[in-house]
Amino acid sequence: MDGQTLAGEKFNDAVLIGETWTKTTFEKCDFSEAELTRLVTQGCRFIRCDFAKADLSESRHTSTAFQNCTFDRTVLTKVNFEGCSLLGSLFTDCRLRTWSLRETDLTLASLAGADLRKTTLTGLRFRDANLTEADLRETDLRAADLRGARLLGARFADADLRGARLDANGLVQAKLSGARVDLETALAFAGAHGLRVD
After folding, report:
1. Rounded distance, CA 45 to CA 49, Å?
2. Coil, helix or strand for 34?
């Protein structure tokens, strides 16, 4: 598919393995339970689309936007997102291990309870994202923007948070024991917990 605009189309249960889609817009399309293994998208837009139980494993996405999309029990193993936006998308019980994200915006995305262990999330934008109870142990979050993110119960043991930006609520809500931080974050952590540093 190249340069098309599709609205309300149903691709559920479709087998679309290894296809390449370029500059195509999908709005309110249903991809539930579709076989999208090794799909390649370039400059596409998915707006309010449903990917419940779809298989997107080994797919690659460049400069593609997934805006307010639903990923419920979706297979996202070995998926590569580069220069993408996942703005406002909801991820529930998805298989996310070994996915790769570079220069990708996760503002307002919901990843509550997600298993993101040992993932490289360097420099990514998580503004106002929901990471409640997410497993971020041993994750590389250097220079990531976590301001406004909901981090209640999120686990950061052995994560690298040097240069990451967190607000006071995040520093109080998250489980940061064992995380690696820079001096600025350490001082902010102390302040958020009512400590005085002289």
Report:
1. 10
2. coil
